[in-house]
What we know:
768 residues, nine-stranded mixed beta sheet, five-stranded mixed beta sheet, 28 helices, 14% strand, elongated
Amino acid sequence: MFYERFGKPMFDRVVGIALALVTSPVLLALMAVSFIAFRSWPIQRIESVGRNNEHFMLYKLRTLDSDLAERGRRRRLGTLLREWSLDEFPQFWNVVFGSMSLVGPRPLSPEAAAELEEWQQQRHTVKPGVTGIWQVESRGDGRILEYNTHIDVQYLDQISFWGDIKILLSSVFAVMRYHEGDDRERELTHKTLRRMIPFDVIAWAAAIMFAVYARPTFVWPQISLIGAIATSIGAGLLHIGWSYFTGVYSGLHRPGSREDAGRLAFTSGATTATLLLLFTLFPLVRGIPRSALLAAGAYQLVAGYGIRFFTRADIDFQRGQTGSKRLLIFGANELSFETVRALRRGESNEWLPVAFLDEDEILHRQRRMGLPVVGGLAGLEAATRRYAAEALLISVPGLDSGTRSKVADAAQAIGLDVRILPDAAEMIDGVSPELRQISLSDFLARDEINLDLEAISGYITGKRVLVTGAGGSIGSVLCEVLAGFQPAELIKLDHDENALQALQLTLDGVGLLQDPSFVLGDIRDQSRIMQIFSESRPDVVFHTAAHKHVSFLEAYPDEGVQNNVYGTLNVLHAAAAVGVSQFVNVSTDKAADPVNVLGITKRIAERLTAHFAEREPGMFISVRFGNVLGSKGSVVPTFRRQIEAGGPVTVTDAEVMRYFMTIEESCQLVVQAGAIGGKGDVLVLDMGEPVKVVDLARRLWVQLRPGTEPQITYTGLRPGEKLTEVLSGPAEILKDKPHDLIDRFAVDSLDPENIEVAMTEYGLVDQA
């Protein structure tokens, strides 16, 4: 604030006067050449809008004559003046007169300023600048200035002394960059290198003058000023001459590369040696010590290296500016800083970080990693406009799902693409430049899953494992998880040949179905299931095959009974016959306090599993969890299709709530449960907090159609549906918690001979 109010005006006046005086000889020469070329007064006065919308006359060298201006063309001189920004030299006098600043937003015409939106008018709270962020970031990229005022407004977030110095220096290197359309590789050709010639020549002149006048004796009267100037001119000419042979400006190498450094060193060395030879053979110039020539050669070489180093750094930086998606980052923390570094090191240039957002007010108006912290979530919309952002990265370790949901909803509501960092397991060296799209699973309140790999390996690795319903949503992912533990054989059983083929393509990359581990069979066929188990003789069985759609089973209860009850009984009998050591029955939360056909049939399957646990030597358990995001028949694919069709999304009731878990989470915990379960137990997976289905629908809508209002229609609860689900029944008693995310309950066993009695008790016989 102090610099903005007091330091900046003083800095502008002092440096502006110095630059105006230093450039005056060049400006006068250019004015003379321009007058001859255009045959009209060389200085143009252009009405512009300055601070507080006050009008002033901007000075500029003429680059067009009246005839060519009508046709939008320039003479060669005008093109040269624009390429090198020499036409802006008169603006230093605007700084001297107080109407402009050295650094600030570019001045606009009154017509362009009048069309700005209210938030864009903020650019007029400071003086316009000779140079600014727009000139550094966007010079020569073909974008219209008036359409990029958000870049000028950004300057308000970062006004500082060192920021102005950085912009001034960056502007010099921006002039050195060669642009031709979008051909970014041309920046590395000889046209970029040739632009270094005047800088190298000036470096020789400065080096000789400094080396001559900065000698230890400082006896200036003995030094010939004319001789020093002549030597400087001669050094520049010799440097250009030697460069023809060394190829330092040939464009066959990158600026700042080792090859470039070697060619420059040879050129500077050859120039120095030639100067020494000429001074020895032809002592025409007196008062110039030969030792000063050696020092000047070293000074010039260091200056040349510096020019090339900064040019290369500038080119590399600018390469990341074009074509990148402008990214806001929510969370100014170490993880975010590492992410910014990784994105800047990346080769794809997909993302361009432009600013941070953080709820910590202490960080506001500070700068981190060269980017401003522009406020908290409340300032998201303003920051999006100001920085023309296209995406928001949520980068806050341990952020709870409620806050994450709030941030994502706010961002998606204004059309931002919301991204999130990969999970820790997916990241390399602690950070990854690959920013994944936020998904519905990121809104689920869930602790990180920590698997007991040793316990799992103990009952999976080297064993024969069979999975029923292997082609289904859960079964297929479960097979992928199990394959990672290297079983001796993984038998994939399903009644759907298409599902098995898709699974083989996923696991093996082929779909020929010639692998005997892919087995076609129906669990309702008792003899076929017994044959499959007798031939494969599995040690471990995961039973996932079931009918799971509530509405269909309410309409066709007998199908639910045949598949979920008697089909499970067939699998249990076959498993007991071959002596499996571990049997895991995959159940559902609807089996707790069941009220529909699905819940009743799965409850009976749990009790049948408990019965076999009492009679058989193997470990027979059930695992119970809720809805799985993205599984076949779940709400997410249905909502997705409805949204893609234009809506509306149908939800049964505004208050209906469900437990949700990702397929990957559920399968990992099912495998973990198999390692820690006791005989006859029902293991209930921690599903976190229940989620309103309508909230799920809204989030999916704004994710697929950002910036539009969700269209939702309520259809009413269907038969067999409840507003809320429970994970355990009222009569079930929690035995213990063998894992952070798993509870253990006991369940009454059911003798297969009493299945009809049980179905009568549950009221299922009348339905079936």
